[in-house]
Amino acid sequence: MAGAPALAQDSPPVPDSGARASAAEAAAGQALIYGGRFEAAGLFFSRLAALHPDDPSGPALEASALIWWGTAQQDDGFAGDSIDALLTEAAGRAERAAAAATTDTARVAALFWLGTATGYRARQAELHGHYWRAARDARRMRAALGRALALDSSCVDCQLGLGVYEYALARAGVLARLVARLIGLGGGDAARALERLRRVSQEGTLARLEAQWVYANALVRESGSDAALGEEGRRIVAELAARFPDNPVFRRFLDSAGRTP
Predict the structure, then answer these.
(1) Helix (H, G, I), strand (E, B) or coil at 37
(2) pTM of the model
(3) Among 30, 46, 100, 153, which lies 20 to 30 A Cα-Cα from 245?
(4) Minimal CA–CA distance to 34: which of 261, 245, 235?
(5) CA distances for 59 relative to 25, 90, 99, 113, 166, angstroms
(6) Which of 137-141, 182-186, 191-195, 254-258 has the lowest mean pLDDT?
(7) DSSP state letter for 6
């Protein structure tokens, strides 16, 4: 998810109460994530979830903070149960919000968070080799984001999950592809997926920085067929590392590629 420049204070900001979290609140918390302050980000979004008990963004982004924290520690199993519980809560909130929405704007927002939560769940399941669960959650994500785009074709952020989904199918291993086909997901188109990711990385709002990170990783993966793609991917991460110098994930990526900003 996208964010604002990293915050300087030692303690996380305190969210305001209200029916829904504001875009500014989400951005403030995401700034903590991208700034490498994962624990503070988790605390911020935990407070956000408590203050806005019907809003799916709080638990979804708290899960994101834990995922980033685990990545920073190179621990794929970090806080797995907590992440799963948060994403289940976020998906439930999003489904209820979509069902109760009285405007297309509110429904699109709820469907975006449903897609985000189920997309993260698919990512977690795939990471641990649970391909059937990953495929089921990927199908739910695709359906939610597809509905959101049908209501509002200008939802650029909705393209992120669909781009990740399509790229994963295009580059998945044999077993994952077999499961995807059996469950009706079909195959993927890597070029089309990269174009989706590129668009969100340049035009997205809430998802822009997340898209930049995902897009850069995909480009580096594609560098075997085109070295220029790898260079572009490293350039993007170098810019992220310069903007967020305390995030160890960006620095380690560059160090492993033999490039530092």
Answers:
(1) coil
(2) 0.88
(3) 46
(4) 245
(5) 13, 5, 19, 10, 25
(6) 182-186
(7) P
Q: Write out pLDDT tens, residues 61-109.
A: 999 999 999 999 999 999 999 999 999 999 999 999 999 999 999 999 9
Rounded to 10 degrees, what is the CA torsion of 221, 139, 119, 241?
Answer: 20
The predicted-structure confidence for 135-159, as pLDDT tens digits, reads as follows 899 999 999 999 999 999 999 999 9
Q: Give the side-chain half-sphere CA count within 13 A for 139.
A: 13
| 158, 160, 164, 165 alpha-carbon torsion, rounded to 10° | 10
Of residues 191, 190, 171, 174, the one with CA closest to residue 182? 174
Please name the residue that has the structure tokens 């302050």. 37
Domain at 23-256, CATH homologous superfamily: Tetratricopeptide repeat domain (1.25.40.10)
Q: DSSP secondary structure string, 199-213?
A: HHHHH-STTHHHHHH
Q: How far is CA 12 from the centre of its chain?
A: 21
Per-residue confidence (pLDDT) for residue 172, from 0 to 100: 67
